[in-house]
Amino acid sequence: MKTVRLLLVILLGTSAVLGAAQAKPQTSHGPQASGAQPSAQQVSGPQWRRAEREEASRERTIIQFTLRGKFLTAPRSETPNRPALLVSCVPDRHDQSEGKFSDAQLLVGAPLKIDYVEPLELNTGTSYLQKVTVQFRLNDAKASEKQWPAGADKSSASIPKDAVKEILRAHAVMMTVKEKNAGEIEMQFDMSDPTQVEKACGIGSR
């Protein structure tokens, strides 16, 4: 009789342990299932960043759009930032989402080789224009060479409006400039949706 009671106690205890084990939730520390959706941070690429600055001298607001790129051949001189495209525009007084183009720049961040070009027309004396020679290629098209006005800091170049339209239309842009007393600097820009830039700056790239 004692043996039967002992067997019953053992069986009841075993059943309770198995039930608790089945009820315990399973925690997975491994990778996500193949059907899981990646986060927005994982799929997002370079994006146009919008900012505003006040131009006190002319009592107006300037809207600036910045797109970061990457160096394929980095400059020899120390450059803390990646290359960037900067497009500025003046917003409409009644609709801040619309406006007109002001200027655009290629920001390299390293001293560039400056070419002194004689202007077509000389008004007073001899005055040479400071230019930066830029080779740029849109997508898989053949590279073209242009001379753009050098920035005041000699580490940037001003991009003409017509070139901005072409750049906004592209999917990828490759640019090459010459570093001062050094070799070439190669840059790549992966272009994102330009809709907000086109509207805010009054640029029709299509």
Can you give keywords for this protein?
206 residues; alpha+beta; Immunoglobulin-like; 4 helices; 20% helix; 35% strand
Account of the 3D structure:
The protein is α+β, with helices and mostly antiparallel strands and 206 residues long. The protein has one domain (44-201): Immunoglobulin-like, CATH 2.60.40. The chain contains four helices and eleven strands; from the N terminus they run H-H-E-E-E-E-E-E-E-E-E-H-E-E-H. The protein has helices at residues 2-23, 40-43, 161-169, 195-201; strands spanning 49-55, 60-68, 70-73, 84-91, 99-107, 115-117, 129-138, 144-149, 156-158, 172-178, 184-190. Strands 3, 6, 7, 8, 10 and 11 form a six-stranded antiparallel beta sheet that branches. Strands 1-2-4-5-9 form a five-stranded antiparallel beta sheet. A hairpin with a 5-residue loop joins strand 10 (172-178) and strand 11 (184-190). The termini are far apart. The model is unreliable at 6-12 and 20-43 (pLDDT under 50).
Helix-strand blueprint:
Blueprint: H1 2-23, H2 40-43, E1 49-55, E2 60-68, E3 70-73, E4 84-91, E5 99-107, E6 115-117, E7 129-138, E8 144-149, E9 156-158, H3 161-169, E10 172-178, E11 184-190, H4 195-201
Antiparallel strand pairs: 1-2, 2-4, 3-11, 4-5, 5-9, 6-7, 7-8, 7-10, 10-11
